[in-house]
Amino acid sequence: MNYILKSIPSRTAKPRSSGFTMAMDKGLSLREVEDFVETCGDFIDIVKLGWATSYVTKNLKEKIEIYRSAGIPVYFGGTLFEAFVIRDQFEDYLQLLDRYQLSFAEVSDGSITLEHDKKCNYIEVLSKEVTVLSEVGSKDAAKIIPPYKWIEQMQKELNAGAWKVIGEAREGGTVGLFRDSGEVRQGLVEEILTQIPEEKIIWEAPQKEQQVWFIKLLGTNVNLGNIAPNDFIPLETLRLGLRGDTFDYFLNQF
Amino acid sequence: MNYILKSIPSRTAKPRSSGFTMAMDKGLSLREVEDFVETCGDFIDIVKLGWATSYVTKNLKEKIEIYRSAGIPVYFGGTLFEAFVIRDQFEDYLQLLDRYQLSFAEVSDGSITLEHDKKCNYIEVLSKEVTVLSEVGSKDAAKIIPPYKWIEQMQKELNAGAWKVIGEAREGGTVGLFRDSGEVRQGLVEEILTQIPEEKIIWEAPQKEQQVWFIKLLGTNVNLGNIAPNDFIPLETLRLGLRGDTFDYFLNQF
Amino acid sequence: MNYILKSIPSRTAKPRSSGFTMAMDKGLSLREVEDFVETCGDFIDIVKLGWATSYVTKNLKEKIEIYRSAGIPVYFGGTLFEAFVIRDQFEDYLQLLDRYQLSFAEVSDGSITLEHDKKCNYIEVLSKEVTVLSEVGSKDAAKIIPPYKWIEQMQKELNAGAWKVIGEAREGGTVGLFRDSGEVRQGLVEEILTQIPEEKIIWEAPQKEQQVWFIKLLGTNVNLGNIAPNDFIPLETLRLGLRGDTFDYFLNQF
Fold first, then answer.
1. Would you list the DSSP string of C172-237?
2. Hey, are the CB atoms on C247 and B111 less than 8 Å from each other?
3. Which of A225, B35, C28, C247 is geometrically suited to a Cys-Cys bond with A22, CB 3.0 to 4.6 A?
4. Does the distance separating the beta carbons of B139 and C248 come in below 8 Å?
5. Which chain A positions have a beta carbon within 8 Å of C57's beta carbon?
6. CATH number of the domain within which C116 lies
7. Within an 8 Å CB–CB cutoff, is residue B249 touching chain A?
8. pLDDT the model gives residue C66
9. Number of domains in chain C
């Protein structure tokens, strides 16, 4: 930090298991990746190459390498896993992870229909090779999953070997955890937390209001995902109570 | 592409007459242009320097040159043409195209009132010097043009020498083809397509939902315009059915 | 300017006391700052490092130096002043300004409750060391300040030594001068202008529609603040009547 302010909430340091932030890279250039890492490196715990953007990304190897040499692991978005599975190309997917020497992978079923046992099977197989993040919740606004099902699925996926589960939102911040308006489904989140340990969940929260909401509910060291690179500095100030939105919230705690 | 996935829709390659994407540059720095070209070069068919941004752009020559040396033609937004015309400076406009050795120009009447015969006249004159894109539709929400008029104007402008016609939207994605909500005027688009060949039209579609809509209506190789540089990688994945929004749509075709 | 167009409104040049534009930097990398300065330097009158982003900004000294060597002063957002004051660390704040050799500072009370006399006191003290910008209006949607109070506070703050007063909006463009919808509180603005000289006010107007509104009310050389770096080129074209939104407005004046 550049100067000393009293009564600042205490953030975890890397490598973190809570207070974790996952970035969504949806097509940064190599130079932008360098800038992102230089400017926000301490706050980036992991980077997701959004959905299947890796398919059309120039210099994919170099990009992954820049992140890696800054100590930041990279993984492919869950939609890519689904794209391979639906095409019966799961073996090719395994080889792909190997080719790019990725140590993380995401298992999801946001765009495809996958029996839950089969999903857990994929988690089990993959978790022998890499660290698995598994995503719960549908990208389809019509498929509303009741809270007890979220919990059941999260538990089974953690048991199957997932390192953490991700609470799904669409990249724009609707569907899944959120209503169409972008508002958080508060009852859902609270019910999940009665059963699943907080540090096992990453909440997708691409919009500022959502980040504020989760910080106020779960504190400075909540795990957040799908954060845009340009929002990292702003998010860090939210976590520290140094932006209007969370200024009072943290001061009232001291 | 970085790896092989089966059943991916087949995209046209450059130089394309369909599956065409026009970028909107509204003030990129030279370094950002280099990055854009390096990262997305294969997908950028042409770049519009938005409205009259070229008036205040530093290093305009260098910017055009970076695009050109990557094989990407550049043209000035239609509002600049209108700014010259309304000031009785059309001759200066011709000299300007010459000074920057531009091979494309846009003729529009979104901000000025121009008799349609006169507009066609400009198209005729300009098309002797450069390749002309002409834009149909008003930027003024109050001026609603009925479908038969869109069609009539498009036909006349193509006859006058326009290479392609552009279906107008405001840069933010309202007005023209879109309702205030950003929603596409579906009946209008469908009626236009009964009369004008698809490959002769570029649809302005700056917002993701609009891009999805046009891709679902006209397929992977629809011509789209006013695409922000940061949206090029995401758009390419939409065209390929590799993002949630178009995932099912394309899979169902195989 | 890259070419000659007749009947373009006449913009002031640097150093400006009107026609002033304040940029909001909320986490640019050093390279992005270089680009911003190179591309838009003539239009950037001053840069605010948004709220307390300076706390977590890497290479803060270098960043300030790049701006400074381009002749652009930098200051810390008002929320940082408030964060020091609420912690009884005002002395540390003075030292901080000194350490970074800043010649501007902002005094505000958007997130804390501060008696107005005390606020004016801070302005008086600070204005002996640096040039003070003071901000009027609350970030809290519930605290609606009636027009006569805005005027009274602005007058007192100018009397206390503020160089200019800033009409507050949240960074996203709601609250303060704006309704929740982002719409400008027109009556408020007009009433303020009956009492406070226009050149003494900087209007925060992060959204395009707000910029258009102020330009149409106060002309090309209105002072605007909280402008995103990417919006500088577009804003300059709005000021010059070279974008659809203000095209007619200026033409009608010639």
1. TS-STTB-TTS-B-HHHHHHHHHHS-GGGEEEE--SHHHHHHHHHHH-TT--EEEE-GGGHHHHHH
2. yes
3. A225
4. no
5. 2, 39, 233
6. 3.20.20.70
7. no
8. 98
9. 1
Q: What residues does C104 pair with on adjacent strands?
A: C131
Q: Yes or no: say if B253 and B9 are a contact pair by the CB < 8 Å rule.
A: yes
Instruction: Outline where chain A has alpha helix (H).
Output: 30-40, 60-69, 78-86, 90-99, 116-127, 147-159, 186-195, 208-218, 232-239, 244-251
Partners of residue C56 in chain A, C-beta under 8 Å = 1-2, 43, 233, 236-237, 240
Which other chains touch chain B, taking contact as 3+ CB pairs less than 8 Å apart? A, C
Q: Best mutation site among A31, A56, A58, A171 for testing chain B: the one with the most B CBs within 10 Å?
A: A56
**Residue for token pair 């948004």:** C50
Chain A hits for B248, Cβ within 8 Å: 111
Instruction: State the helix-helix crossing angle for C244-251 and C208-218, rounded to 10 degrees.
Output: 10
* Chain A touched by C52 (CB under 8 Å): yes
In a domain, B7, yes or no: no
pLDDT, tens digit, 9 for 90 and up, residues C141-157:
666 778 899 999 999 99
Residue B140 confidence (pLDDT) = 66
Cα–Cα distance between B169 and B182 in angstroms, integer? 9
Distance from CA of B250 to the nearest CA of C (A): 35
pLDDT at A177: 80
Contact (CB, 8 A) for C122 and C85: yes
Residue A174 dihedral angles phi and psi, to the nearest 5°:
-125, 175
Q: Identify the domain containing residue B219 by its residue range.
A: 21-251
pLDDT in tens, B31-83: 999 999 999 999 999 999 999 999 999 999 999 999 999 999 999 999 999 99
* Chain C residues near residue B99 by CB distance under 8 angstroms: 3
Pairing type for strands B21-25 and A224-227 reads unpaired
**Closest to A231 (Cα-Cα) out of C127, B168, C27:** C27
Q: Which of C55, C85, C96 to substitute to test the interface with A, most A CBs within 10 Å?
A: C55
A8 part of a folded domain: no
Asked, for residue A180, whether it belongs to a domain, the answer is yes
* C155 vs C160: CA distance, rounded Å: 9
Residue of A24, A28, A29 for testing the chain B interface, max B β-carbons within 10 Å: A29
Q: Which residues of C touch A230 (CB under 8 A)?
A: 26-27
pLDDT tens digits, residue range A12-71? 999 998 999 999 999 999 999 999 999 999 999 999 999 999 999 999 999 999 999 999
Cβ B26–C248 below 8 Å, yes or no?
A: no
Q: Which CA distances in Å does A130 have to A96, A106, A133, B127, C249?
A: 12, 10, 10, 59, 61
Binary contact (A111, B248; C-beta < 8 A): yes
**C2 falls within a domain:** no
Reduce the DSSP state of residue A82 to 3 states and report it: helix
In the predicted model, residues of chain A with pLDDT beneath 70 are: 138-143, 170-175
ipTM for the predicted complex comes to: 0.95
Does A1 reach chain C within 8 Å, measured CB to CB?
A: yes
